[in-house]
Amino acid sequence: MHPLITGNTRIYGLIGDPLRSAKSPMLLNRLFAEAQTDAVCIPMEVGTQGLAEFVKGARAVRNLAGLLVTMPHKQTMLEMVDMLHPTAREVGAINVVRCDPDGRWEGAVFDGLGCVLGMQRKGVSLHGKSVLLVGAGGSGRAIAIAIAAAGARSLIISDLDPQRATDLAQRAGEQGSCTVHAGPADPAGHDIVINATPLGMNPDDPMPIEAERLNPATTVVDIITRAEPTALLLEARARGCKTLDGQPMHVGQALLALRFLGFKEIEHRYSTGL
Questions:
Q1: First to last CA, the chain
Q2: Where is the Quinate/shikimate 5-dehydrogenase/glutamyl-tRNA reductase domain (predicted)?
């Protein structure tokens, strides 16, 4: 059960469109309740055309303490905050906003770091590994930069927009000693394959890679969160691959977001239990 909502309850909103598969409110409200914290996370379905109007109104809500940001607002929100955390400047996107008591909003992004943390918590190390990343959009951009900084040996980035993949490869290549290139979505020869595209959210979506070219020793990560495994994960499992769905990344993001939002006690308490 969630604790009783009081006049002092801090509100954290999740904004995006659509939100039908959103897991953040359930996870954060469970953590708030278990820690007996007077806070609540609620979904706020805001479309692209209504974002500016929403932000204008939200700034008047003095007990709004933060926002979680998902598609399609991760880039647009950059222009609607007062300060950018180094992660947001690096990636060029935002997925969490801290609304400080003085009225200033600071945006950060933990998609990439959350993905890496989630993989590590499941025993998947990136150190010295060859990685294929499919998708160079908002989440893919953050993941590429985090992977390159986490000690991967090499990273191939594939996207339907070759120029977007090339631009991201150049940016990610500035992180550490990882060799980063744009290339085809061919999983053969890679230690880790990550799907950062929306392909798999719907039953009739095409596969993001040719699964028949997967090696059993490859770890396959699909960042999509849904109740049933995606077609990619089912094919990968059939070929003997270790697989991770979007839940480890989701938990990793939540832990990092809790720290950023000031819930260090909750983050520390649950960092080993989730």
A1: 18
A2: 122-197
What's the number of CA atoms in the CB half-sphere (13 Å) around residue 212?
A: 0
Euclidean distance between CA atoms 250 and 225, whole angstroms: 8
pLDDT at 35: 86
Whether the CB-CB separation of 39 and 32 falls below 8 Å is answered with: yes
Angle between helices 138-149 and 162-172 (to 10 degrees): 30
Domains of the chain: 10-108 (3.40.50.10860), 112-248 (3.40.50.720)
Active-site annotation holds for 122: no
Summarised one tens digit per residue, pLDDT across range 187-205 is 999 999 999 999 998 888 9
Give the global pTM.
0.87
Options 56, 74, 242, 264, the catalytic residue:
74
Q: Which amino acid is at 7?
A: G
Model confidence over 9-34: pLDDT tens digits? 999 999 999 998 888 899 899 889 88
Q: Which 8-state DSSP code applies to residue 209?
A: S
Query: What average pLDDT does the structure give for the chain?
Result: 93
d(CA 9, CA 74): 26
| % of the chain surpassing 70 pLDDT | 97
DSSP string, 107-140: EE--HHHHHHHHHHHTT---TT-EEEEE--SHHH
Question: Given pLDDT bands bounded at 50, 70 and 90, which one contains residue 273?
Answer: low
**Interior CA angle at 253 toward 247 and 255, to 5°?**
105
> Cα 10–225–124 angle (5° rounding)?
105
